[in-house]
Amino acid sequence: MNDKHLSSQFDSDLNQVCSRVLEMGGLVESQLVTAMRGLNTFDRALVDEVIATEQRLNAMEVEIDEECSKIIARRQPTARDLRLLLSISKSITNLERAGDEAEKIAKRTRHLLEDGAAQTVNFAEIKLSGEMAAQLLRRTLDAFARLDIVAAAEIVRDDKAIDNEFRGFVRKLVTYMMEDPRTISAGLEFLFIAKAIERIGDHAKNIAEFIIYIVKGTDVRHISREDLQRQVQGE
After folding, report:
1. 3-state DSSP helix/strand/coil % of the chain, to nearest 5
2. How far is the C-alpha of 215 from the C-alpha of 146, rounded, in Å?
3. Helix axes 8-41, 124-146, angle to 10 degrees
4. Where does this polypeptide localize (predicted)?
5. What is the torsional sign of CA 64, 27, 196, 50?
6. CA-to-CA distance for 17 and 177, rounded, in angstroms?
7. Euclidean distance between the first and the last CA atom of the chain, given in angstroms as a whole number
């Protein structure tokens, strides 16, 4: 994002829209952290706070996408600038969907509180997964700010750890529900929460792949993590 153009206004437009993406990403990260705090403490006020923030995220996605469209229409960018704007449009969609997942965590937590089933399942893996997803999202935003493809490739690789935590929790949850059918209702709520966290990791990974596309001009969404690492490190 440090490349300069003949038009200083073009640079200003690009910097402004990139700043809005980081602002939106920060809001999503805050939503996730708050949703996890609400789950860990079963605090209804925190849960309600996350749900109330969702409309603000939706509005930000629309505003940033409109700004990208205006820049494309005014400046007719090519090459990396065009890839940047197209990737921003796709990245904010992923951020908005990550915010939706944080809202799902809050809503499922609210169900647990309303049903009085909050303490029926040991969900230590969910706590760890939530921390991992928040860290991954934070690293993704940092990599986007610097257009750091090495960091982006590491994010794609590290998303696998969240997937593994999810699968491990599902296996444990099935055992809980088989041993005690009274935990089935709460178990399903925790299952949806765990899936939401896994999806947030996926959205962070998607944005990391767009970072690589911006810099290299290569769509890496369909290559293996190992091939991606070799390709980036071979730069």
Report:
1. 85, 0, 15
2. 11
3. 170
4. Cytoplasm
5. negative
6. 48
7. 19
pLDDT in tens, 100-158: 999 999 999 999 999 886 666 778 889 999 999 999 999 999 999 999 999 999 999 99
Half-sphere exposure of 82 (CA within 13 A, CB side): 8
Non-local (6+) Cβ contacts of 66 within 8 A are: none
Q: How far is the CA of 227 from the CAs of 16, 204, 216, 224, 232, in angstroms?
A: 34, 19, 15, 5, 9
> What is the pLDDT, as a whole number, of residue 118?
66
Q: Which of 224, 232, 210, 223 is nearest to 140 (CA)?
A: 210
| The pair of three-digit structure tokens given for residue 29, joined into one six-digit string | 């990260």
CATH class of 1-233: mainly alpha
Nearest to 95 by CA among 20, 175, 168, 41: 20
Which pLDDT tens digit goes with each residue over 178-225? 988 888 888 899 999 999 999 999 999 999 999 999 999 987 776 666
Domain boundaries, the chain: 1-233
